[in-house]
Design goal:
- The protein has 129 residues and is α+β, with helices and mostly antiparallel strands.
- The protein has a single domain, classed as Riboflavin kinase-like (Elongation Factor Tu (Ef-tu), domain 3), CATH 2.40.30.
- The chain is 16% helix and 33% strand.
- The longest helix has 16 residues, at 113-128.
- It is globular and about 40 Å long.
- It starts with 5 loop residues before the first strand and ends with a helix.
- Bound molecules: adenosine-5'-diphosphate (ADP) and magnesium ion.
- The site of adenosine-5'-diphosphate has 21 residues, from strand 2 and strand 5.
Length: 129
Amino acid sequence: MKNLPYFCRCEVMRGFGHGSKQLSIPTANFPEQVVDNLPSDVSIGIYYGLEARVGTGEVHKMVVSIGWNPYYKNMKKSIETHIMRTFKEDFYGEILNVAIADYLRTEKNFDSLESLISAIQGDIEEAKK
Ligand code: ADP
Ligand code: MG
């Protein structure tokens, strides 16, 4: 993928309300236009990278899912960023800067919520390395 690292910057929108937050893996969703503007050679899957949020200036590690969320049977492609730190408050409407560094794995379906969660936790460990 010649477009990596890929940078995008947009406000955080409400997502599909899957309750990722209740699973301790909240994902900040970008609006549709960010998804529509992705270069065509950016494959569906899980990526890691760095993220900086305007306002704090701090840069954090993150994992990003680009795809269809097959476990949840989404009809719409999404870009969802899980930032690897705990925030005291939600930041809907704030500008999120994302630097997508490299590819971790392709998108997969899971037969249980537990296996989905453990795959995401594995992605987070890989991203840390
Ligand atoms: P939604 O379906 O609206 O995306 P989520 O359960 O995925 O809901 O939660 C995402 C929201 O949680 C983000 O938009 C953001 O405001 C907040 N949030 C808090 N901590 C984090 C984090 N570490 N990474 C991503 N989003 C976070
Ligand atoms: Mg989300």
